Amino acid sequence: MDTDIPAVRVDVMRRARQLMVDYAYAIDDGDLKRWPTFFTEPCLYRITTRENVGKNMPLAIMLCDNQAMLYDRVEAIEQANIFEPHYYRHVLSDSQVSAYGGNLLTVRTSFICVRTMLDGAMLLFAAGCYVDEIEIDEQTCLFRSRTVILDSSKVDTLIALPF
Amino acid sequence: MDTDIPAVRVDVMRRARQLMVDYAYAIDDGDLKRWPTFFTEPCLYRITTRENVGKNMPLAIMLCDNQAMLYDRVEAIEQANIFEPHYYRHVLSDSQVSAYGGNLLTVRTSFICVRTMLDGAMLLFAAGCYVDEIEIDEQTCLFRSRTVILDSSKVDTLIALPF
Amino acid sequence: MDTDIPAVRVDVMRRARQLMVDYAYAIDDGDLKRWPTFFTEPCLYRITTRENVGKNMPLAIMLCDNQAMLYDRVEAIEQANIFEPHYYRHVLSDSQVSAYGGNLLTVRTSFICVRTMLDGAMLLFAAGCYVDEIEIDEQTCLFRSRTVILDSSKVDTLIALPF
């Protein structure tokens, strides 16, 4: 049984994956000013939980649908985080393509995120998956939408973090 | 020093990897009815521990060698899990090829699995590696055997889970 | 926005990644005698922390700059570990290329490492990234330097481990 996913050209998949990887390193570097630059305008960025998705509830923990909202978010985080420094480390598993057509690629990608506080304590911070719509053509490779689905519904107040 | 692994065609490796990825997402989705469809008939599915492998002990914690046993397993799990809902999230590292010839590819793949309970508690549930024999030709890409080698010997009774 | 990383030939990237993967499996297998064989001579192997890097402090927790030092390290570890057996499991995320020219590829790669003690206890042991300079040409694919940057500054005394 080979899967019946749409055939995606190797170079298209590689560029899409590169976008996800650059995004993850930017977040982990704390280089939040780069965060909005990974999205189209308008865009959709949402954080929700697996429980909500399972119940078909449209509620999101966070929702931004344009670049200005993303930049506001960055500013809020940078102010909030002054007193609580910590590091993140995302590890991505392979992506699974669910649709591909026109210049839009829809994929999901499992991830685990570890948080390390400055005193050295390490914590399994989040596990979940990204569901991404990536706009990809000769010039562009950006998230049109990124939905973060967290496995846990007990969400830390530091969720301010863009995942 | 380049490694002396057998040369595996890029498209063969990509299809094998796709099989592992689809398998992981099916398990994490709780879509257990798809689980047996990833195997040939007959097949071999085993869970064992690194300690046993190190001692050259052939004991397995679980062993299924045909599709009917896999389907029985799914039924048992679905009944057992009614009262204890939880989510799994597998993250795979790169695969390492150990043999390739005829239509059979032998690879191993490190993984980490995180479990999240419905109350939100997250747990590092398992770490280990898969040793897989994948039957792969123009029509087919399926596990002839999958051996799950867990690093920990303290195995949860919920091991009912197919890893 | 496509990233402006240098274009790296697909086969070059694949060989570099294979080096990292073989390295990780050798460590996780406890096959430490292979460890020095992944490096050029002379070479540079360093372990440091993200906090040190952030403060631009050149201090390393460990530094080896030739093969003899690496082999000494292996011997020390094998003696130290006799009384405290445990397993490691590394999971690598995708690599990000930062430079490529001549026969030298510079990349970084996020990782998580889980430690399992023989009594079965599992621990999130380390998270961080590798910054690697890989010497790669038709004959060779080896680390000229590997810098392990740990997210945590609270470093276990068993750090004897090559990461």
What's this model, at a glance?
The structure is a homotrimer of 163-residue chains. Chain A is of the alpha+beta class and 163 residues long.
Structure, described:
3 copies of one chain form a homotrimer. Chain A has 3 helices and 6 strands. By secondary structure, chain A is of the alpha+beta class. In chain A, a hairpin with a 4-residue loop joins strand 4 (104-117) and strand 5 (122-136). Chain A is globular, with a radius of gyration of 16 Å. Chains in contact: A-B, A-C, B-C. The A-B interface holds A 1-3, 5, 50-51, 91-96, 108, 110-112, 124, 126-129, 151-155 and B 15, 17-18, 20-22, 24-25, 28, 37-38, 87, 89-92, 112, 114, 116, 118-124, 139-142.
Major sheet strand order of chain A: 2-1-6-5-4-3
Helix content of chain A: 10-25%
> What about the largest sheet of chain A?
6 strands, mixed
Quaternary arrangement of the chains shown? homotrimer
- Give start-end ranges of low-pLDDT stretches of chain A: none
Which chains have the largest interface? A-B, 26 and 30 residues
What distance separates the N and C termini of chain A?
34 Å
Q: What is Rg of chain A?
A: 16 Å
Percent strand of chain A: 35-45%
Cα shape of chain A: globular
Overall mean confidence score, pLDDT of chain A: 88
Number of helices of chain A: 3
What is the string of SSEs of chain A from the N terminus onward? Answer: HEHEHEEEE
Main structural class of chain A: alpha+beta
Topology, number of strands of chain A: 6
